[in-house]
Amino acid sequence: MKTYEKLLHNNKEWAKAVNEEDPEFFDRLAHIQTPEFLWIGCSDSRVPADRITGTQPGEIFVHRNIANMVVHTDVNLLSVLDFAVSYLKVKHIIVCGHYGCGGVKEAMSNHDHRYVLNMWLRNIKDVYRWHRDELDAITDETARFDRLVELNVEEQVMHLAKTSVVQRAWKHEQQPDIHGWVYGLKDGLIKPVFEMKAGTRIDPLYEYDDL
Ligand code: CO
């Protein structure tokens, strides 16, 4: 059996097992999607949103990219955000980074990753620059790397708050709250590192007053 065929085989087994345990499972999900959470995580294969949070299909709306970035010109991210917030009315957005993130690590290097990846990693280099004093003061390289992972999550949470999508929902619906978490590959545990409750004031420069 080829490796990808194994996936299709597993899928059949899974569908059969679910059906046996809960015959209405698929019928229920086919008709309604009301997730309470939007997850913005890293594409890293070791950080599966549903597995590490013990959630089921239908519970989390997911967007993943390299290093869980919220880039304000990323049409993909913004479309997911708008749909999740404005239509699905999620109550919580979770930005979940992870220690040992390859994207963050590469952004700390001076290696040329060629055009497209350089462009993406540049966003993380900016996070480093905004927190350069704190980061440069950390002499242990792993500790500095871990801290940048945390600060990156914090900045992405704030980037979400700078969008009109989130500000409009905060004004009219007093939701969603935004959470910044970091997952540990070594112990499987999630550490909350930052939070912005709905309605939190942000730098007035980024506030829209005619929402
Ligand atoms: Co990663």
Task: Provide structural commentary.
- This protein has 211 residues and is an alpha/beta fold.
- It folds into 2 domains: 1-32, no CATH class; 34-200, Carbonic anhydrase (Beta-carbonic Anhydrase, Chain A), CATH 3.40.1050.
- Helix content is 48%, strand content 16%.
- It has helices at residues 3-21, 25-31, 49-53, 75-87, 102-107, 115-130, 132-136, 141-161, 164-173, and strands spanning 37-42, 60-65, 92-98, 177-183, 190-196.
- Strands 2-1-3-4-5 form a 5-stranded mixed sheet.
- Strand 1 (37-42), helix 3 and strand 2 form a beta-alpha-beta unit.
- The radius of gyration is 19 Å and the shape is globular.
- The termini are far apart.
- The model has no long low-confidence stretch (mean pLDDT 97).
- Bound molecules: cobalt (II) ion.
- Residues 42, 44, 67, 98, 101-103 line the site of cobalt (II) ion (CO).
- Cobalt (II) ion is lined by residues 42, 44, 67, 98, 101-103.
